[in-house]
């Protein structure tokens, strides 16, 4: 009789621990599915649902091999102009949708590639590079002294420049 009660107790404990483990598993999956797929650090707030590359080299490789244009956003976390543009960019539904057709990179540091600062190192500046890895110096904003600068009020120009980058790619490559 003693053996039987130990067995029942043992089985009861197994059943309880299984049930608890199942519940713990459920909680974990609920939390993990709610989180974005990529760490927030790569988007830096420019579009958390978009896929961002980590480095300039990775972005060039992906652009070349996926045959998509690359869009590079140079910005700084403590720059009010960068912050203002980021907010408008992230909230602009059409831009976010169009951005899915690009390889995306946002940089908070300067690269050693001088092609990425054709007219100086200022932020925010946005450059497009086609899959042949040519910097599209012909796709510019509206400022003659900072050709690749965009302000929040220039968001529709940025949108049309994104469309232009995609169109040029199709006609020229």
Automatic annotation (TrEMBL):
<dbReference type="InterPro" id="IPR051099">
    <property type="entry name" value="AGR/TXD"/>
</dbReference>
<keyword id="KW-0964">Secreted</keyword>
<dbReference type="GO" id="GO:0002162">
    <property type="term" value="F:dystroglycan binding"/>
</dbReference>
<dbReference type="Pfam" id="PF13899">
    <property type="entry name" value="Thioredoxin_7"/>
</dbReference>
<keyword id="KW-0256">Endoplasmic reticulum</keyword>
<comment type="similarity">
    <text>Belongs to the AGR family.</text>
</comment>
<keyword id="KW-0732">Signal</keyword>
<dbReference type="GO" id="GO:0005783">
    <property type="term" value="C:endoplasmic reticulum"/>
</dbReference>
<dbReference type="GO" id="GO:0005576">
    <property type="term" value="C:extracellular region"/>
</dbReference>
<protein>
    <submittedName>
        <fullName>AGR2 protein</fullName>
    </submittedName>
</protein>
<dbReference type="InterPro" id="IPR036249">
    <property type="entry name" value="Thioredoxin-like_sf"/>
</dbReference>
<feature type="signal peptide">
    <location>
        <begin position="1"/>
        <end position="21"/>
    </location>
</feature>
